[in-house]
Amino acid sequence: MPPPTRSALPVLTYFWFKGVCRYLDDLVARVDTPQLNEYRTPTLKALEYAHLHFEDGVARIDFFSHTSGYGSLKTGILCRESDWQVLSLEQVCISCLPPLSAVKDLCIYQNPYNPYLDPHRQDNVDNTLWLELLHLFTAVKNLYISTVFVPRIAPALLELVGGRTTEVLLVLQNIFLQRFRPSEPVQEGIQQFVTMRQVTGRPIAVSRWVSTYHPPLPFSLFLGIIVVGLIAYRAEWRQRGHIFEIRSSSPPPSYPP
Q1: Contact 50, 84 (CB under 8 A)
Q2: In sequence order, what are the residues at sequence separation of 6 or more whose Cβ sits closer than 8 angstroms to the Cβ of residue 206?
Q3: Sign of the dihedral defined by the CA atoms of residues 26, 27, 28, 31, in that order
Q4: Dihedral angle computed from the Cα positions of residues 194, 141, 168 and 215, in that order, rounded to the nearest 10 degrees
Q5: CA dist 253 to 67, 190, 216, 248, Å?
Q6: Do 241 and 116 share a structural domain?
Q7: Residue 40 in contact with residue 93, Cβ under 8 Å?
Q8: Which end of the chain lies in a sparser environment, N or C, as judged by fewer CB atoms within 10 Å?
Q9: Is the pLDDT of residue 233 over 50?
Q10: Do both 238 and 192 map to the same domain?
Q11: How far apart are CA 208 and CA 54, in angstroms?
């Protein structure tokens, strides 16, 4: 079959896609977008930071750069089960995202302050799934793990102890753990992994992750805070004999999920 005819979109500056990944592959193969900086191949190769973000019902992977000044590439998967979230991110990384060989910093994060997360929810992710996902990031030097994921990643790394410690994250130099204190013992799986890497001549330092990243509040929660504040403000004005009303002449803007 002849190659698909490509269409030029010379003034397109923003692109947002929601759907099955293979459809995105087909779409990208058919369009030229010279001004879409965040989806040009040279730009994608410069995105050296990957952020795996897990929430209740959605898993995201965000790529951006610390130094190049380029934008970011963000992909989300609607999925509730933890094992499917990890598996889905792995498939997305394999299929239609920028080369992972450029990624030097990998962050695995979950916002513990999200009110929609169930603190008693059991994690059913098999260690093999975590290892298969980490195996894709061959150039990562710095691994950042949030508090929620330390007890989930540690058992997976423990499986590598005993001759397999160089199977994943071969060039890893640093592990940063959120809320870690040097005076406290490191999670067993991580400690044994670090010890074995020291034996193989590839030392890894474990340090505290002082995160400057603050995930945005869910829009519904943000809106709720505003509404509560306005109600309280309006009540105070009424007590003082004033009338305070909010009116809107147009519907509120829509936001992507």
Answers
A1: no
A2: 174, 175, 176, 177, 180, 186, 190, 191, 194
A3: positive
A4: 100
A5: 33, 46, 18, 12
A6: no
A7: no
A8: N
A9: no
A10: no
A11: 21
Q: CA-CA distance, 127 to 156, in Å (whole number)?
A: 5
**Residues facing 75 on adjacent strands:** 61
CA distance 37 to 30: 17
User: pLDDT tens digit string along 3-38?
Assistant: 667 777 777 766 666 666 566 666 666 777 666 654
Are residue 127 and residue 236 in the same domain, yes or no? no
Judged by DSSP in three states, 20 sits in coil
Give percent above pLDDT 90 in the chain.
23
Q: Residues 154, 250: one domain?
A: no
Range of the domain at 250: 219-257
Give the mean model confidence (pLDDT) for residues 140-153.
92
Predicted structure pTM score = 0.67
Please state the rounded mean pLDDT for residues 225-247.
42
